[in-house]
Amino acid sequence: MKVKSMPPDFQSSESQRRFAGAWLLVSAVVLVLMLLHRSDSIAFFGRYSTRYMFTLAVMVGFTGIAAVTWLIMRNEHTLLQRLALPHSVWFARGVSIGGIALMALWWYFRPGTRQPVTMLFHFYVLALLFAGMVWLLIASGQANRVFEVRWLLSLLSVGVPALLLLIYLGKLPPLAPFDESLQVNGSWSIVDTGDFFPRIHPYSVRDYTLGSILRQAAGRWMALTGVGLNQLRLFYVLVGAVSLVFIERTANMLYGQAARFAAVAVGAFMLLHHNFARPDVFVALTLAAGLYVFFIAQRASSPRKHFLVGLLLAMAAEGHPAYGPRFAIGVGIIYLWDYMQHIRRTREWFRRLRVVYFVMGGATYLIFYLISRTLFVNDGAIDVGNTLETLRLHYLAQSRGSVGPLSAAKWMLNVTMYRQYVMLYPFEALLTIAVIVLAIWRRRREDLILVIVFVVGSIYLYGTLAHLNNFIGSYSYYAIHTMPIIALLTGSLVAQINEALPQPSAIHQTRLTWASGMTIVAIVAVFTADTLDLAQHRSSDNMAQLIAVGEQIDRLIPEDLMISGTQVYWLGMTHRRRYVSTAALAVEPLADWSNGSVVLNEWAQYGITAPEAVIVTRGLDTDEDIFAYIDAYDLVATYCFPINRFAGETVVYLPATQERDSAAPGCDG
User: By the 8 A CB rule, do 616 and 626 touch?
Assistant: First the structure.
């Protein structure tokens, strides 16, 4: 096979000087951030631990090497010309296999603590390993060799995430003690009762109706496949898989062949990492579809396309009513800017009305949302004012009161959320930062559009963030919203390596180089290592272990007894219809649980009565109202199960007259 020489841009001294300068700048930024860190245990300079001091010394060394390299490049020297490397296919294969293996092993076995600044250093080393691999391929003249095994990239981009999904379904991502169990119970209850009524949270029925009508489809799915966490997670990952089709088409349209493989790989792994039993993935689907139509409309404009963009992006509210439509704001700003530029150039106010059609599309969905939710909230009556008031009260309740967007409390809320995200998903979080920064540096029109949509959406999220999930981090839920943008920007970066960044009017290149092919393989390899690391090292807060406790409790409590317990235990007994969360005991006054009360009479049609068994998780269920209920109904601690979370024990309270299974674990004292 004939090997073409590398383009002058890669081997020129000017190009090498720019990259050396970029390396020095990045090294300096990372070093400064590391210097600002303060360790928990202090041994040096009143700030750093012994381990961290060693890491800091290594970073100082890297920065020094970067500075020396930049000085050499500044004096018109080119390192590539000084190296006498083999110009053979086998050398390229050896460098590629060794480099990719080293990157994956480094990321899986990386040393040190899991603090954000340490993760940044780990990512920096990973980037150096990748740059070193590509640099050696360029120096050997093999980087521009045609990569012909495209079926392998298709297999890796989709097959590896799909295989990991089958292996870790229900185990990844980590499970919180609430939320997903509500989604499973609520989606099933819709089908089982024919009403938007979550049995496990009967007091939140009005709030629940404000959410996604996608839950009804989820309930129908579980009617066919069975009720459970795995079944609902599988449903939503299949919904998300549809977004990969739009991502692939958009990446191919904007950036070429290399980008489509990389974008699909990143999208598939993010679906795996954020495969929660929640409708958030629908935000990713509508965003992916909306961006696809948006970029098509830039090339072949029509009112229908712009209307569809607005409609699709507004429909993201079905994925998350508060945060889903935020990307429509960013796209709307782009439409408005385009319209203002048109007026400035032509002084014609009533032509190029793309923004009007876009707004009409969004307004169409908004009307549908208000009418449908008004009917749900008000039992078929049209009372939009009451619905809007319900939305306002729901937000205030979720935010634990009103927190101003510029307040210190709001700032700390966001800082904590992103800190949790970096600690749980470091590769994904730092990749996001990297592709955003590089997109701004490249200043390509399509990239900047994606960055604007991402930044505006992030600003909106900052100002409206209501609360945190302190078990697995709220952004673990919301990261999937931005998945299409991160996937496309990663594809753009790979396309740059492949020299496949066509102008809007250019014919797309179908040629795939060895360097870009190995970049895609490296992305898959590191994401795989990150997935294994997440499953084995970073999922200590996974509450899936409590499902097994729920299964044991299910075998001990008669079917006809009404149970109240932490939500997660219900996932081990999903066949039970008579189960409410302990939060219900904390929210509803004790008097409402007495027979004949107005509340119980209303809930009776759904099989809900006063609980005769209460499951308490020590260290989690701490509300005094729960124990007041236990005392009022003379329930006694009957079974105690050891767990390795919270205070280390799950206690089942039953009536003193209830016969006890002697083979089950009792409670001492």
Answer: yes
Q: Report the pLDDT averaged over residues 292-303.
A: 93
- Structure tokens given for 208: 């629940």
- State the pTM of this model: 0.92
Give CB contacts under 8 A, 24+ apart, made by 66-70: 66/20, 66/23, 66/24, 66/27, 67/24, 67/27, 69/20, 69/23, 69/24, 70/17, 70/20, 70/21, 70/23, 70/24
Q: Give the list of residues 6+ apart from residue 629 with CB closer than 8 angstroms, or none.
A: 564, 585, 590, 593, 611, 614
Residue 615 host element (H or E): strand 613-617
Bridge partner list, 614: 564, 653
Q: 414-450: b or e for each residue (b if 16 or more CB lie within 10 Å)?
A: bebbbebbbbbbbbbbbbbebbbebbeeeebebbebb
Note the pLDDT tens digit of each residue in 242-290.
Answer: 999 999 999 999 998 889 999 999 999 999 999 999 999 999 999 999 9
Name the region of 444 (left: φ>0; alpha: ψ -120 to 50; beta: rest).
Answer: beta
| C-alpha span between 119 and 105 (Å, rounded) | 15
pLDDT digits (tens, 9 = 90+) for 29-74: 999 999 998 887 777 777 888 888 999 999 999 999 999 988 887 7
Q: Please, what is the angle between helix 514-536 and helix 116-139, to 10°?
A: 150
Please state, as a whole number, how many other Cβ atoms lie within 10 Å of the Cβ of residue 404: 9
Residues 75-98 have pLDDT tens digits of 766 555 556 678 888 898 999 999
